[in-house]
Amino acid sequence: MGKRRGQLKGAQQKIDDELKATNIVGGYIGSIICTDQGLLVASAGDIPSDEALAGFASLFDEIVHRGSRHLGLGEIDEATVLDKNAGRLVIRPVFPPSEWGAQGSRLFLVMWMDADATWRRNANRLLVSLRELLLPFVSKPISESPEEVASD
Predict the structure, then answer these.
(1) Has this prediction a pTM greater than 0.85?
(2) CA distances for 47 relative to 52, 97, 112, 142, angstroms
(3) If 0-12 CB within 10 Å is exposed, 13-18 middle and 19+ buried, where does residue 9 land?
(4) What are the phi and psi torsion angles at 37 (to 5°)?
(5) Strands of 40-45's sheet, edge to edge?
(6) CA distances from 123 to 31, 85, 90, 129 (A)
(7) What is the mean pLDDT of residues 135-142?
(8) 68 Ramachandran zone, left/alpha/beta (phi>0; psi -120 to 50)
(9) Closest CA to 15 of 51, 43, 55, 46
(10) Which of 61, 107, 132, 138 is deepest in the core (most CB within 10 A)?
(11) What does DSSP assign to residue 37?
């Protein structure tokens, strides 16, 4: 197993642990990390279809672009969807939109919670931790060949 692959496996466990811990502290239904293409990176909690949620969250990218282009909004750091029966979905970029070009990867944190739950402080703490864990992997292409990963 290459060094980078081993680091990724260790980071994956830490990400899963961070998501689980945040779900417990906030009493959230679940949370995921996904890409702008709707690909699931990590998931924790009791989410009926984490893949469908990842696909839905990928729309955040379009919201940011339209908000900037049509409304003159600056750096959008959150989108929230509230359904009084199903609860609240909070979508936040792991890295701020101003850094998307530098990072090359757009990753989103999605938290699903009861409609009356609070999230801002817990999400901010989680995002700081996720940025530290994910930065080494998003500054290089994620889709390197196994030979490139093994040679690290």
Answers:
(1) no
(2) 10, 26, 8, 26
(3) exposed
(4) -95, 0
(5) 40-45, 30-35, 107-113, 87-93, 79-83
(6) 10, 22, 9, 10
(7) 63
(8) alpha
(9) 43
(10) 107
(11) T
Structure tokens at 100: 């998307």
Is the Cα dihedral 86, 90, 94, 95 positive or negative? positive
**Distance, CA of 130 to CA of 65 (rounded, Å):** 24
Q: Let me know if 72 is exposed, middle or buried by CB neighbors in 10 A (0-12, 13-18, 19+).
A: exposed
Whether residue 94 contacts residue 109, with contact meaning beta carbons closer than 8 Å, is answered with yes
Sign of CA dihedral 10, 16, 19, 20: negative
CATH superfamily label, 3-141: Dynein light chain 2a, cytoplasmic (3.30.450.30)
Q: Which residues pair with 59 in a beta bridge?
A: none
